[in-house]
Every structure is written in structure tokens, then in C-alpha cells.
Amino acid sequence: MPERMVVIGADAGGMSAASEARRRRSPDDLEIVAFERGNFTSYSACGIPYWIGGLVDEVDELIVRKPATFRDDFRIGVHLHHEVTGLDLDRREVVVRDLSDGGRERRERFDILVYAAGAVPVRPDWARTDAGGVFGVQTLDDGAALRAWLDRDPAPRQAVVIGGGYIGVEMAEAMIQRGLAVTLIEQGSEPMSTVDPDMGAMVRDAMVRLGIDVRTGVEVGELLTRDGRVRAVGTSIGEFPADVVVLGLGVRPNTALAAAAGLPIGPTGGIQIDLRAKVVGTDRIWAAGDCVETIHRVTGRPVNVPLGTHANKQGRVAGINIGGGYARFPGVIGTAVTKVCDLEVGRTGALEPEAAAVGYDFITVIVESTNRAGYFPGSESMHVKLIAERHTGTLLGAQIVGRSDAAKRIDALAVALWNQMTVEEMAGLDLGYAPPYSPVWDPVLIAARRAADKLRSMDC
Amino acid sequence: MPERMVVIGADAGGMSAASEARRRRSPDDLEIVAFERGNFTSYSACGIPYWIGGLVDEVDELIVRKPATFRDDFRIGVHLHHEVTGLDLDRREVVVRDLSDGGRERRERFDILVYAAGAVPVRPDWARTDAGGVFGVQTLDDGAALRAWLDRDPAPRQAVVIGGGYIGVEMAEAMIQRGLAVTLIEQGSEPMSTVDPDMGAMVRDAMVRLGIDVRTGVEVGELLTRDGRVRAVGTSIGEFPADVVVLGLGVRPNTALAAAAGLPIGPTGGIQIDLRAKVVGTDRIWAAGDCVETIHRVTGRPVNVPLGTHANKQGRVAGINIGGGYARFPGVIGTAVTKVCDLEVGRTGALEPEAAAVGYDFITVIVESTNRAGYFPGSESMHVKLIAERHTGTLLGAQIVGRSDAAKRIDALAVALWNQMTVEEMAGLDLGYAPPYSPVWDPVLIAARRAADKLRSMDC
Lengths: 460, 460
Description:
The structure is a homodimer. Chain A is an alpha/beta fold. The first copy, chain A, is 26% helix and 29% strand. The first copy, chain A, has three domains: 3-42 and 58-120 and 252-322, FAD/NAD(P)-binding domain, CATH 3.50.50; 123-249, 3-Layer(bba) Sandwich (FAD/NAD(P)-binding domain); 342-457, 3-Layer(bba) Sandwich (FAD/NAD(P)-binding domain), CATH 3.50.50.60. Chain A has a five-stranded parallel β-sheet with strand order 3-2-1-7-19. Chain A has a five-stranded parallel β-sheet with strand order 9-16-10-11-12, with helices on one face. A five-stranded antiparallel β-sheet of chain A has the order 22-23-26-25-24, with helices on both faces. The radius of gyration of chain A is 23 Å and the shape is globular.
């Protein structure tokens, strides 16, 4: 009689865990069943803005693997339209509601549980998603609903995007590409709140050049409707008419079931897991993805970073361990890249306020250079910002804004930061140089050298 | 009375040292004079193939700084057409021949010497550069002569490039772009000898697709001439007709003067310097650039890697130390990137034979992935090869061949290798993910994960 593993949530975290466990344990040894309340499994939520904007044609392209693939190739059962509504740790059972069968509930036993319920969108009181024309963009279902609304006749003409994080910025661009007039409303001082305001200001300029009406320092108070449809967004500086409103307000860990069952929830609202992705204080209960919290290696603080790349890695770690191997998830450093209008944006490590909040004393430098040798065709400008600890020179954070070949340069900085390199050490790094790819001093090296010079001149 | 610093060779290494020293010591304290036998200073030799191929229009674009800039902005004297022909360490003098003044010689004293004489091209006995139509591509003067030859009327139609390293491959492409028929002759089993043959085979395919006649495993025996002009290349498999022959046979350190003066020359033929770029066993004599040898951090062996990026860094280190600061050059790991036809090629660390030669026991993996999310427009194939120590999993080398956004991914691998990360640690790295820039598992991470899986399955 095989053991039975139940997975709550059939997306990146859960299905990575399932696949890795299966590679190590055969169906005779371990039965694996996943329950997913939605219509899809293992899809790219990050691709939704490009599907809305028309860069990606078909929703199928965003789906990495379908239930049939898991069934046939991995012998993993995936049940869509099945919502897990209860978790009984003592009896080791979950309560599952079959949404395609009138909501009939049944109990399913497990020996091993993987909790990978993902995240739920942040919805302030004013966010009336019941009103026509108001959409989130968290799931493919959200995306499908928004696309249907945009295809109406007459088509909506004025969009308001609320929230200037990377999803909001990407959605503003997608709406412009679809021919709508777009206003972006953000609470903070600049859009792209994932970078410091000095870098965010460059993003604002690019958005404005594209025709987006960017409003920052603005609080949303209410959504105004007529006949059940949104007609305007009421804010601290007045009303903005809207035929369609997109909410890009971020997400929070989906942990209601876990909390009710007594699983430990950390200060970020995420489930607490150990290095091997096992839920703290439990036996054979694992968690992965947007619903967990992990450690930020620069600040040392717990963080919840809802990104598919972490979900996949945490799922892999859980699956290896479930399968009898050894793997650990080493935490994150906040790396992210975004394409916004004609700019590429990358970041890693701590922003200035994040570094300051935990007590770091640091210096910053911003350098401008180019993606290629200055004489090489297609050479374009790029800004690199570094944040380094004053006393030691250790890299704490990096941000890049440029036109091309910029965003992924953050990876070299991320690996340097991961290894706690100093900016002086970094200035000696052996990075790739050829005229089509970089000036003889890569922008990353120029920034490191400048930071090292600054620290030298301060004699610290 | 200021001290006097003499620089032999006014290119990357020498002028970086001069500029950094000047930043720390004023003209009242340190006079700086550089002697350069050529027509140019501080130029991008790596840009020559693109100038020949027509991607770069004017030779001036390749010149980073001119003597007037050094004079006016840095108060550094640069004397072009001045060849240093003697070095007298006891009297602390150099003998300088003014090539623009009939070769008149004079002696110049120094307190501090920077030896940055660069490299000289490898010229086997058969390499008759006195024959018309036979060219190297090491200097701007070489490039100008080749361009003039290509512009003759009637224009040459058949080119033979000898040597399949990155310069040879770039020159073959440049000649195709100029409309010539091109044969590339290489001794080894594949072109692009800077990567392992399994990766080099992909480069061969790309070259053949572009119409280049690639001949490998071929020894050149002689250049055949008629009326003082080259007419064919004689090889181990017969004659190849040629109106123009380009020699891409590499370079060796230009150390004749240094050796004659008794400066220490290492096993690679390069000058031996210490961590701070001071010539071993000397006082106040420094060296930088293509003429020195340094340590390869993976093999632990001395190497001579003639690349502008190292020359600049070594020069910076020398200049900081000359200026009274402290800096050291940490060695190299063999990182290089090249654009060849429609491919991008990157490498870092040791190739398989290099790793084997020093006794490493290792495994290799090659994975194929894409530069962007599979569904994102412009998604293209990329191969990543990793070499990892079997017992520890430590990364020893990496190679990438892909169509776009491939080459500079080597930087993240280079920084990981620099920090002696294991492939399992690397699989947990927090790299940038967004659909326009990578699949949810970046190709770099996929390769690391695959290597970690392979090591796990070998139970070592």
C-alpha cells in the first residue's frame, strides 16, 4: 500500500514538489494527488500582462503543463475545480469541495501534505471587484475576464491602473498597447516602487513618453459606479473617469486554511518553513510558493516574495526532501527584473530604506554607461546604482535602469551580493568583454570601481 | 622637483596606470611621460574586426582617448612614434628612438617605470607578412593596411583566414560581410578553440550557414606568392587560392626589452608581477597588460590572457599603488564572450582539457533552454555547458552558445565560479525572472540544477 501525498494548489510550488517527489519515488511507493480550485495548473501568471497586451496570442501558451501531462507522464493526479476547504491535521485529512459537482464535499486522507495555496490579491474596502469593469490580474481567470471586457463593443476607452508596482506598470503598458488611454495611480513618490525613487523617476519618464498619465502621491478613496459598472476612481486629488479599472495592489499569502489548522504563520503573514521547506513544528507537512515566508539574506528579516521563480525552487526543495534526498532553500535577495515601456529595470538586494531599516550604514553611487562599446551600433545608455556598506564595502543592493541588455546584468550583481563580495573585489571580477556586449569596463564594473573609489576617498 | 614616471606603451595597461597615478599625485609631485611606438593611443583593438567588416565606420571611433586629452585633462605627456629600444635599470633610464625624427635616440630617466609594451603577433616561419595581401589584425595600423587592400580595384575576392580563435572567427565574418568568399583554416577539431569542441561544433554550423568554408584539422605549411603578392595558402590538404590572407594566430607577450634588462619572465613568456602589479624582485617597476602573466584562479597556473579588460584592471591596480594607495589584481578565470555570425558565445573558468590537465575529476552537463519564456516573442534556443568537480560540486567552468541574450549570461556564472560556488548552491541562486528575459528557471539555473541532479544520482 503506497503512502499518499496530497498537494493543495496545483501551480508552481505544488507541482514542482510533486514532480520532484515522483522522480524519486514510484507510484507503487507514493501516490500523489493535487487539488486546484481554478481552471488551470502550472501556468505563468507573470505572462498575463503580455497576453492582455497582445504580445502573447493564446492563453494556452501560458500553460506550462496540463493535468493530462501530469497524469500520463508523471502519474500525478490533478483535480481542477476542487477547492480544499478544510484541513484536519489530527486525522490527516483534507476536506475537498468539487466545484464542478455542485460543491459536493468529500474528505481525502494524506500521509504527506504539501501546502501550496499561493496568494490572494490585496483588496482594500473600496476595491469593489463586484462592479463591472473592475479587474485584478492574478489568475488566468482574471485575465480572461479582463480580455473579454476589453473586447466589448463599444470598447472601453479609458483605463485606470491602481498601483505602481511591476504588475501595475506592466498592465499600464499593456492597456496602451491595446489603444486605451491610461492613467496610473500610485501612492508613493514614483512608479516602480520596487526600485528607489531616483531610479523610479527614470521609469516615470519612460511611461510619460509612452503617453501614460502617471499620478503619484495619490490615495484612492473609492470606485464610483453607474448601473453596476465602474465610471470613475475617486482619489485624494479628485475623480478619474474610467471604463475599466485594473487593480495592481499586490498579493498576500493565502493561509486561511493553514492558520485555522494551527500551522505557524510568521510576521509577514506567510507560513513558516524550515530550511528544507518543511512547515515549522510539523511532521511531514511541507509548504512552498507564494504562501510561505523565507529569509532575506541581506536584511536577515523574514519576507514573503510572491514570485514563480521562488515557488519553483521551494517546490523542488520540498520534493527532493519528500523523496528522501537532502536539499534546502537558502533564502532570497530580492532580485527582480521588469520590462516597462522602452526600459529594462533590474534590482537585487536591499533598497535604501530597506538597508536603513535594519541599521546598515551605507554609501550609494549611480553611474551612467552603455550596454555595448560606445562605437558599436546599438550602443545605448544604462544607469547602475549600487548600495554598499560603508565600513566593509560589502554590496547590499543594486539597481539598473537601461534601454537594452540592461535588466539581466542584475544577475552578475545578484551573484556577487549573494556571496557578500565587496565593491573593491567586484571591481576585479573577470566578466565577459567584447564590443557587441559591453564597454571594456562593463557598467557593472564601472559602478563597483566608482563605489570602491568613493569608499577609498572617505578613508573608511 | 617632482618624481618622474615613464610608461612604455600608451595603450590600455599603461594609460590606466598613468591616469590612476595622476588622480592621486599632482604634476608637482609626479611627472608622467608615456612612449608609444605606434600611431595611436588607448584604442580598442577588439573593435578592429567590426571596423574591417563595416559595422564601425571611422577608425576614430575606436580611439578612446587621444594624446591631447591626456596632455590637457590629465597632464600626462604621450609621445607617439617613440619606440623604447633600451632599458637600463641601474641608471634608471630608457633609450627612446623618435621614429618621426629619423630614428634619433635619446635617453630618458625615470624614478618609476610602468612596462606596458603589450603583445606581438605570433608569426610562424611561413607567415610572410612582407608579401602583399598578408595581414595581421593586432593594431589599428594593421587594420588600416588591410582595409586599404580590400578597397583596391579590382577588389580581392577570395580571403583565407588562418586561425580559428575568436579573432579569426570574427575576421571571417567581417570578410563575408564585405562580400568576399572566405575560407577559415584551423588546426584543431573545431573553430572557436576557446570553447570545448562540443560547443565549437555549434559555431561551425553557424559559420557554414553564413557561407564560410570551414576547414579544421588542417596545418598550414606555406604562403604561395606571385610577383610579391600572395596567391594561395599551402596546407596539409592542399592549396587554397587567396587574394588576401588574414593571420589570426594569437599573440605572445612583448617582453624582449624586459628580458634583456633582467626582469623576471614566467613560464607563459609574460613578465612576473606580484599581487599589486609590481614586477617581482624589483623596486618601483610595475607592469600591466598583454605583456604580463597572472594566475588562473581555477587551475592555479600562471596564464597570459591578452585582453583589454585585464590590461585596464592591472593598470588601475598599478596606478593606485604608485599613487600611494593599496589595490591588488586578483587573477583571472578565463571569461570571454564573442559574437560570431548569428551566435553568441561565452565561456568562463576551465575548458575540459584545462581542468583535466591540473588533475580535476569532474562531470559535465549540457542543457538546452531559451533566452525568454517559451511563449514570449523572440524566444530562442541557448545551450549551457557546465563543468563541476565531481567530489564537491564546485563549478570549474561554463560555456554558453545561443542566438541572443546568451553571451553575457556567462557573467552570472563567472561570478559564481569566482566565489567557488557549488552547482547545488547555484541552483538556489536568486536571479532575475520575467517573461521577456528568461524562462521561470533561467538557463543558468537549469544547468546548475541538472548538474546537481547528476551528482546526486552518482551519490558522490
